[in-house]
Amino acid sequence: MRIDIITVLPQLLESPFQHSILKRAIDKGIAQVNLINLRDYSTHNQKSVDDYAFGGGAGMVMSIEPIANCINALKAERMYDEVIYTSPDGETLNQKMANQLSTYNNIIILCGHYKGVDQRVRDHFITKEISIGDYVLSGGELAAAVICDSIIRIIPGAISDETSALTDSFQDNLLAPPVYTRPAEYNGWKVPDILLSGHTKNIDNWRDEQSLDRTQKRRPDLLK
Hints:
The chain is of the alpha/beta class. It is 31% helix and 19% strand.
């Protein structure tokens, strides 16, 4: 999978891809992440990529020209399955969406910034808009990192034990059950006996029950 991230702050995105699962996936060649500086596609002497909004109002707007130049240049080299824009009013990212995106070959992610992008970008270049929650960030870079993490970690081979990703919260619309590790008793607090029984079927049934119970209590909306 190839992910091209268009941003005005590429340095902000360097760290997330230099550690842990994402780094291992990139090193294995499972994923390729390219940070593209939008300013490289600006025709202005100052390399500006924003301007004042028509009609007035506070804040600057990302200009269409450098974004169009950048996306067109990328599309001239390959086909893209999605051109994503990170936006507070986009579709909320969830596990089902991440699963779908992880099956694609090439994705562009345009990081929003300032007061957003010229609407014509959204109308004519963007194929999917994604939000990571009902709040506003200073820019779309952190959202892009979250999207990439959710996608890359479930690509086969990214995680050594691939069954681990399949038992994550939300994969079956349930929250994950509680987990424990050694010691079996600490400060008088004991691990449930069933987990020490060695009876795989009973343990699986217990985990299913715990997942359902936890979901009913904490996220009943998932069961709808």
